[in-house]
Specification:
Elements: H1 2-19, H2 22-26, H3 39-46, H4 49-65
Length: 66
């Protein structure tokens, strides 16, 4: 279940980013963001972070189990 959900969410993110113009992503602050950060920067910052955290969790769990 989780791999499919992760792959589906990843695909939704890629589709969303591909459909946006550079002006949409980098022209103005993200609506609802509550600060001056632009949408493209939010996507860049959030993109790899969950994968890195998941990898660290999986590796530490495997070390503890095996």
């Amino acid at each position: 279940m989780y791999p499919q959900a992760l792959m589906a969410a990843h695909q939704r993110l890629l589709t969303f980013l591909a459909e946006q113009s550079d002006a949409d992503l980098y022209g103005n602050p993200m609506v609802g963001g509550g600060n001056a950060r632009i949408s493209g920067r939010w996507a860049e910052a959030a993109g790899p972070s969950p994968y890195r955290l998941a990898t660290e969790f999986i590796r530490s769990t495997l070390r503890a189990v095996f």
